[in-house]
Amino acid sequence: MDRYSDLLASVGVERGLIGPREAPRLWERHLLNSAVVVELVPLNAAVVDVGSGAGLPGIPMALVRPDVRMTLLEPLLRRSEFLREAVQVLDIADRVQVVRARAEEHREQYDVVTARAVAPLTRLAGWCLPLVAPGGQLLALKGASAAAEVAESGLDAELIACGDGLIDPPTTVVRLRRGA
Ligand SMILES: C[S@@+](CC[C@H](N)C(=O)[O-])C[C@H]1O[C@@H](n2cnc3c(N)ncnc32)[C@H](O)[C@@H]1O
Known about the structure:
The chain is an alpha/beta fold. The protein has helices spanning 2-14, 26-35, 58-64, 77-89, 121-128, 146-153, and strands spanning 46-50, 69-73, 96-99, 110-116, 132-142, 158-162, 171-177. It has a seven-stranded mixed beta sheet, with helices on both faces. The radius of gyration is 15 Å and the shape is globular. The mean pLDDT is 96. Residues 50-54, 56, 73-76, 79, 102-104, 116-118, 127 line the site of S-adenosylmethionine.
């Protein structure tokens, strides 16, 4: 995680993937908030992180859960190239793959789909629910807007606080399950 943090603060900032103001607060605003979401991920799950950007939340989740097979899905060339480099540098290529594609054009299914800061909940659900295998779940990491987005969407979603007692504030996750 230290190596990933260093990579984001150097190459990530130089290439405009992370704002320079984020560099001093990477751990509390980005890495730990992402990592705690693993408490909702079953053992040995196949996970896809949609719109992974510089690897959030997918890379921290993969670093703390070596049992998980992680796909980082990112359509933009510059970002997907950074992700490929990060996977090499962090030596996690045996369990983390990078796919350059939009969610709507990706055809695989996964036990868990994650997304942070990608789209409003209704649009995100439209893109991501087809990627959720039967019995699986979509985990959308949301900020203060979470409850309002759920209410507006009319979707049957749960609001979950991840990392309660570990980080303050906890990460707000909107969970949508797909029936078995
Ligand atoms: C604001 S960034 C967030 C990146 C990262 N998840 C984070 O939290 O730092 C949104 C990302 O979603 C990606 N994205 C936008 N539309 C997408 C789509 N239809 N399918 C997959 N990724 C998409 C963008 O390329 C961008 O990298």
